[in-house]
Amino acid sequence: MAEALGVDVDTLQGWESGRRPLANMRAGALLDLRRRLPALGAEAGLVQWLDAAMDADRIIGAGLGDGAGGPHPLAGWVHTRDTAHMLAWALNGTVPPALAGRLPKSRRGPVAVAPQLAAADRAVFFDHLRDATERTATLGEAGALLHRQALYLASYDRGPDAAAWTAHTLHQRRDVLARRGWSPYWAEARSTATALARLGDPQPLLEFIGRALADDDTAEAANLNYWALWLGALPVPQADDTFMRDRTLSGWDPVTLLRGLARGLHPAPGYVDLYAHSLWALLTAFPWLPQAAGQLAEPLRERAGQLLDGAALSAGSRRKLARVHYVFAHNR
C-alpha cells in the first residue's frame, strides 16, 4: 500500500496510528490521497468519512491543548452528526452506525483497533468542554454556539461524576427551555433538551416540542433546517445558527432528510417524539414526498405502525405519526 501511494512504510503507519495526522498534510497531497484510495480499492463511501474524522480531530486537538490557536473549532462551525459519531467513537468507543461491521481485521504493526482516546486524555478533553461551557455561559449570543456545542458533547462523558455535572448544568438552562417559539436561544434549548433525553430525562424534550416548536412557523423551519444539516441533506457547512431561520426551506434535499429521519425512528424516550413531529412537519412542508419516497415508503409505514401499536409516543406525537402512517399507507 505504501508503495502504491508513493510513500514510505513509516509514513503510512503514522497515518494509521495517528502519529502523523492526515490533517497536517499539504492540501494538494491530501486531495491526491483521497482520489487515489478509491482507485486502489477503498470503498468510496468510507473515504468520505475522512472529512468527519479530521473535523473530530480538530475538536479533540483543541480539547487536549494542541490546537493551532485561533477561534475554537466549536465556536465557528456547526458540527454534524457524522462528526458527532466520530467523536463518540473516540470518546466512549461507540462505533458509528455507518461503520458497524466494516472495521478492519487486526494485523501486525502499530495500528490501533479503534481511534479511542486513553483514559487520561478523555479526562483532559471533558474537563476542557466543561470549562468552555462555564466560561461562555454568561457571554450571551457571542458565546452561544460554543456554549451549546461544548455542553452537548460534555454529555458524552460516562465518568462517575459526569452525568451529575451535565444534568445540573443543563437544568440551569431552564430559562432557555421555557421560551416559547423561536428565539435567539432556540438552538441552545433544542440541544439542551436532547442532551437531557440522552441522560434519561425525556420530559424537557417533550415540553420543548410542545412549547418551542408547535404552531410557530419559524421554529418549525429551524427544526427542519437543523435536521437537514445534521443528517447530511444540507451539504454546505454552516458557520453559525442563522441558517436555521430560513423559512424558504431551500438549499437541502427533502428526500435525503426523509431518509435520515426514517432511519432514526425508534422507541427511544423523547427522541421518538422529536422524530415523529419532524416527519410530520416535513410532510406538511413537502406534501409530494410520499410519491418520491420510493423503496423507503413501505419500511417507514411499517415502522410507524409498530410505534403506533406501542406505548412509546406522547399523545401529540401519536396524532402526528398517525398522519404520517396514513399518508404513506394511501400512497402505496
Describe the structure.
This protein has 332 residues and is mostly helical. 59% of the residues lie in helices and 0% in strands. The protein contains 18 helices and no strands. The protein has helices spanning 2-5, 9-17, 27-39, 44-47, 49-63, 81-92, 119-136, 144-154, 162-171, 174-177, 186-198, 203-213, 217-230, 254-263, 271-285, 289-292, 297-309, 315-329. Helix 11 packs antiparallel against helix 12 (203-213), helix 14 (254-263) runs antiparallel to helix 15 (271-285) and helix 17 (297-309) packs antiparallel against helix 18. The longest helix has 18 residues, at 119-136.
Strand and helix map with partners:
Layout: H1 2-5, H2 9-17, H3 27-39, H4 44-47, H5 49-63, H6 81-92, H7 119-136, H8 144-154, H9 162-171, H10 174-177, H11 186-198, H12 203-213, H13 217-230, H14 254-263, H15 271-285, H16 289-292, H17 297-309, H18 315-329
Please tally the helical runs, counting DSSP H or I stretches of 4 or more residues: 18
Low-confidence stretches: none
Q: What characteristic shape results from the CA principal axes?
A: globular
* Helical residues, percent: 55-70%
What is the makeup of the main sheet? none
Q: What's the total count of β strands?
A: 0
Helix/sheet category: mainly alpha
- The separation of the N and C termini measures 49 Å
Rounded to an integer in angstroms, the radius of gyration calculated over CA atoms is: 21 Å
Overall average residue pLDDT: 89
Properties at a glance:
332 residues, mainly alpha, 18 helices, globular
Short note summarizing the structure:
With 332 residues, this protein is an all-alpha fold. The chain contains 18 helices and no strands. 59% of the residues lie in helices and 0% in strands.
